[in-house]
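Sequence dictates fold. Below is an illustrative record:

_____
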Amino acid sequence: MKRILVTGALGQIGSELVPALAARFGSDAIVASDIRLPPAGQSGPLGHFEFLDSTNLRQIQDLVRRYDVGTIYHLAALLSASAEEKPHVAWELNMGGLYKILEVARAHRCKVFFPSSIGAFGPGTPKERTPQETLQRPTTIYGVTKVAGELLCDYYHQRFDLDTRGLRFPGLISYVAPPGGGTTDYAVAIFYDALRHGRYTCFLGPDTRLDMMYMPDAVSALIELMAADPQRLVHRNAFNVTAMNFTPAELAAEIRKHLPDFRIDYEIDPIRQAIADSWPDSLDDSAAREEWGWKPVYDLPTMVADMLDKLRAKLRL
């Protein structure tokens, strides 16, 4: 079996994808890579670990050749809020890195997964149940790189018959990786502060409605899409996927069912609020359900209960 390379393996998605892949295919089959080094003692569960700057073509080529890689999950990217602070870095990493990954994959006939996002949509997109195919005019550099990435992956499939696949993720919630500079990171940070301090100050307004997904469902979606019969994939790249929909106020209310004294305050960050307001309120993921059987497991109540349990153990509370 050819090995699987994961870039950005220490990030929010990679931190949970790599162990899931190792559990399914064996640790020896996984090559985890990042521009950071893993914490001491963590290299074992990651299988093979390699330092990788995903904007460095030679480093990518070396890893793919040395480990006989057949599939690449390309997760290395700068997230929405961080990208607005460093747009030039975001373009070089998000687009330059993807281009180099696709070029190496073309030469070695690797399958490629590329994660897109609700950030690929803009204020002109229908806000409710945003269709699979619709107007995409994002107003952030992060969104621009995601739209361009979707199109580039489509191009490599159509022009070079490269097996490229992708998902448009909503906000992702994880107890494994800490918040990493995304607009929806309030939905992760709120749990830490709820358990540690009994209160949280949210940077988005109380009625900001967005689709969300718990990381175990996101990881399942990744693996299921890459295993799907390619003959069934009409869209291939950038499938809308979602699992739940709520506002900060609704999430706080659900947390209060477990922590009755929990309080939430609001100090709105104009940049992140503007980003969130430019995104859809909800996504239509019927194409993913029809073409490869997508179905989430977690809803808001089950996600909140599991997050609190897992974080209590992680934080030793």
In short: The mean pLDDT is 94. The chain has two domains: 3-171+213-240, 173-211+244-281+298-315.
